[in-house]
Specification:
- By secondary structure, the protein is mainly β.
- It has one domain.
- 0% of the residues lie in helices and 35% in strands.
- The chain has no helices and 6 strands.
- Strands 1, 2, 3, 4, 5 and 6 form a 6-stranded antiparallel β-sheet that branches.
- The mean pLDDT is 93.
- The structure holds zinc ion (ZN).
């Protein structure tokens, strides 16, 4: 079922991992972070603005700065900076 995001819903924001080292490891890998929808692009509901809640800080990613694009790929294959609906556990 395809849901449409709306202001105030909680989604996951995919953090950017740090660059991959020559040996293939990363200091920080991508993580799902809690994010609240602050805006929805009226022309494309898959592009949203979010307020991201990291464990020790928060930041805002508004549509005016490009917003976040839906990426429904499996964990590990998603683009950093994208959003998706929280996984069912
Ligand atoms: Zn997630």
């Amino acid at each position: 079922m395809q849901q449409t995001p709306s202001v105030g819903r909680v989604v996951h924001y995919v953090s950017h991992g740090t660059p991959t080292r020559p040996d293939g490891t990363q200091a920080y890998t991508q993580q799902c972070r809690a994010a609240i929808v602050t805006e929805v692009d009226p022309a494309d509901a898959t592009r949203i603005g979010v307020a991201v809640l990291n464990p020790s800080g928060q930041f805002f990613h508004p549509l005016a700065a490009g917003g976040c694009v839906l990426d429904e790929a499996p964990a590990g294959a998603r683009d950093g900076g994208s959003w998706h609906w929280p996984e069912r556990v």
